[in-house]
Specification:
The complex is a heterodimer.
Chain A lengths: L8 E3 H15 L3 E5 L9 H6 L4 E3 L4 H13 L3 E7 H4 L4 H10 L5 E5 L17 H6 L5 E3 L4 H11 L6 E4 L4 E3 L13 E4 L4 E5 L3 H14 L4 E5 L2 E3 L3 H11 L2 E8 L4 H12 L4 E6 L9 H7 L4 H13 L2
Parallel strand pairs in A: 2-3, 2-4, 4-5, 5-7, 6-7, 10-11, 10-13, 13-14
Antiparallel strand pairs in A: 1-8, 6-12, 9-11
Chain B lengths: L3 H22 L4 H6 L1 H11 L16 E4 L5 H10 L41 H14 L6 E6 L6 H12 L5 E7 L2 E2 L2 E2 H5 L4 H7 L3 E6 L3 H12 L8 E6 L22 H10 L8
Helix pairs in contact in B: 1-3, 1-4, 1-10, 3-4, 3-9, 5-6
Classes of the chains: A alpha/beta, B alpha/beta.
């Protein structure tokens, strides 16, 4: 089995900040906007180097989304930066009409998603964003799993013409992906296995890798797929694996309703009915706490993935 | 340069188009459309610098218009067609299946002249500001125009945008508010009083002008005068007093014709007041 190690932990939002700065240097049409969260989104370096191409909108996210849509009309590629909660639910209608329906080339970059936001609590811990955004026609939805992947995704989405939702987070997290180009819509096979397919996204890809190691010691060979692009979904990669293993566990830092798990369930129902278990938040809001404690309490930790695998294998 | 009489003649036909389109679809918003006919004709046929009939989404090296109160699409579609962006007979497809002329303006069908969807209110000023910022970045001296309903000012996003445009000196933008005092549920006074709009916009840091939006001579003069404030550090807003339903007597003076279509008999009554000028579709 492939051995994953990491030498450092870095926050995915810093990957975004570095990626944005690199983009700024190579593409003069890239512009940045924030609603009073430039520091939290690590956009300061971009702002410093390209002050004329950075717009501090103040605490007015609806206006920010509209301005971003307008900027695209003049050929700009706007990257909006605020928390995931304020990037989606707060401005859903603005995104729906001015960006998605109008098919504007806006990159909605959303940090502090999910429970791992931690101490700020449920007001800020959005667990519904992937569902909301994947329902919008024209929208590409991306949820990278570590610093390197977030940086690469930030750079890749500038070349994709059309609206994109890029979701990342706050905590320092193991860096385990190679520093390599990001291919939108192409799932990554992290671990080959034959007994079960674990399909994970975002921070939980690392948890899935850890779970596969635990399972390996128990003689269960788990295949691990990193679905960094929720939409368009890499249906072929999912089916190829499930046809081999016959059962699936999905893992995500998101509500069970409407998340990656539901996208995978749709694929299975339509093409290859198979048992599936969800590792996701089950119809409840989060709370304040340390990120890892929260993952444990809400059933999103490594042992939860292991348990889900054992459960789903009995249903084969 | 069109004469005031020529502009009036076009506006007259546009009003006729509006009533016929809404009747043809048996749905749509004639009241505000009729009230804004003079403004849109003045803008497209006299004031804006355009590449028409050529339409390019990026609007580089030409002026750009945003309709934020998208429900008055009939007047915009008529003006766009009459300006040559698409064939006038296409107006008969308004609100019908497989048409580019959606109930509210949209880009999905690549309707020439439309750069962003509108209909859900309050979003157009932000989009206009974004386009104005892009013009500045592109060192393009052309202007951005936008139109908003007075009822639309009840949306909070308008005031987010108003605050931003003044603070960031977006001074290549001329917004206009159609002050007809009416919205779907009644008068703006009854639904949610807007207070002193002149004082509000001024307090938000805008250069505020006023005009009678149903006096073609005044509309043209005010729009041209507004351009003299460009580049002076402040965004510009024109408070445009209009009569909802202007040109059709039974539609005037009430909110009733905000969003309903005339029947055959009332269509005829309207057309009798609006004789054909430059040809029906």
């Amino acid at each position: 089995m492939k051995k994953y190690t990491f030498t450092e932990q870095k926050d995915t939002r810093s990957g975004f900040g570095v990626g944005l700065l690199e983009l700024g240097r190579k593409n003069p049409n890239v512009v940045g906007l924030t609603a009073d969260l430039a520091g939290s989104l690590k956009m300061n370096e971009f702002e410093k180097e390209f002050p004329d191409r950075f717009f501090q909108v103040g605490i007015a996210e609806a206006n920010m989304m509209g301005i971003a849509a307008g900027l695209t009309i003049g050929g700009k590629i706007p990257f909006t930066g605020t928390f995931a909660n304020f990037s989606t639910g707060r401005v859903y209608d603005q995104i729906r009409q001015s960006i998605a329906y109008s098919n504007k080339n806006v990159k909605i970059c959303a940090s502090h998603a999910g429970l791992t936001l931690g101490e700020d609590g449920a007001t800020h811990q959005i667990l519904e964003d992937l569902g909301m955004m994947k329902m919008l026609p024209n929208m590409t939805v991306i949820c990278p799993s570590d610093y390197n992947e977030t940086k690469a995704a930030t750079i890749a989405i500038a070349d994709h013409v059309g609206p994109v939702y890029l979701r990342f987070g706050r905590p320092a997290w193991p860096v385990f992906n190679a520093d390599e180009p990001f291919i939108i819509g192409k799932a990554k096979l992290m671990q080959e296995g034959s007994d079960v397919t674990i399909i994970a996204t975002g921070h939980l890809v690392w948890k899935a890798i850890e779970a596969a190691e635990v399972l390996n010691e128990k003689g269960i060979y788990a295949e691990v797929i990193n679905i960094h692009t929720i939409k368009p979904l890499d249906v072929d990669a999912i089916l190829r694996s499930v046809k081999k293993t016959g059962c699936v566990v999905t893992a995500e830092e998101h509500m069970r309703n409407g998340g990656l798990g539901d996208s995978v369930a749709q694929v299975l129902a339509m093409h290859h009915p198979s048992p599936q278990e969800y590792v996701a938040v089950n119809d409840t809001f989060g709370e304040s706490g340390k990120p890892l404690d929260l993952l444990k309490k809400y059933g999103l930790d490594t042992p939860d993935i292991v348990n889900a695998v054992e459960k789903v294998m009995k249903r084969k | 340069m069109a004469s005031i009489d020529e502009l009036k003649t076009i506006a007259h036909q546009v009003r006729r188009d509006i009533v016929r389109m809404v009747h043809g679809a048996q749905s749509g918003h004639p009241g505000g459309s009729l009230g804004c006919a003079d403004y849109l004709v003045a803008l497209y046929f006299e004031v804006m610098k355009l590449k028409s009939p050529v339409f390019e989404m990026d609007g580089k090296n030409e002026d750009i218009f945003f309709l934020s109160n998208g429900h008055i699409s009939p007047v915009w579609y008529s003006v766009l067609a009459r300006k040559g962006y698409f064939d006038v007979p296409e107006l008969s497809t308004f609100r019908k299946i497989d048409s580019r002329l959606q109930g509210h303006p949209a880009t999905a069908e690549h309707t020439p002249g439309v750069r962003i969807a509108s209909g859900s209110l309050g979003q157009g000023l932000s989009a206009a500001i974004g386009a104005a910022l892009a013009k500045k970045l592109n060192k393009d001296p052309h202007l951005i125009y936008s139109l908003h309903g007075d009822g639309e000012l009840e949306e909070g996003q308008i005031w987010e945008a108003a605050m931003f445009a003044a603070a960031k000196k977006v001074d290549n933008l001329i917004a206009t508010v159609d002050v007809n005092g009416q919205q779907i549920d009644g008068s703006t006074e009854d639904v949610l009083s807007l207070g002193d709009l002149h004082a509000k916009w001024q307090a938000f840091g805008w250069e505020v002008l006023s005009m009678d939006g149903n006096n073609m001579d005044e509309v043209v003069k005010t729009l041209k005068n507004a351009a003299s404030y460009i580049g002076k550090g402040k965004p510009i807003v024109i408070l445009m007093k209009t009569e909802m339903g202007a040109g059709v007597d039974y539609m005037m003076g009430s909110h009733k014709w905000h969003g309903i279509a005339p029947n055959d008999e009332l269509l005829q009554k309207a057309l009798d007041q609006l004789p054909e000028t430059i040809g029906d579709y």
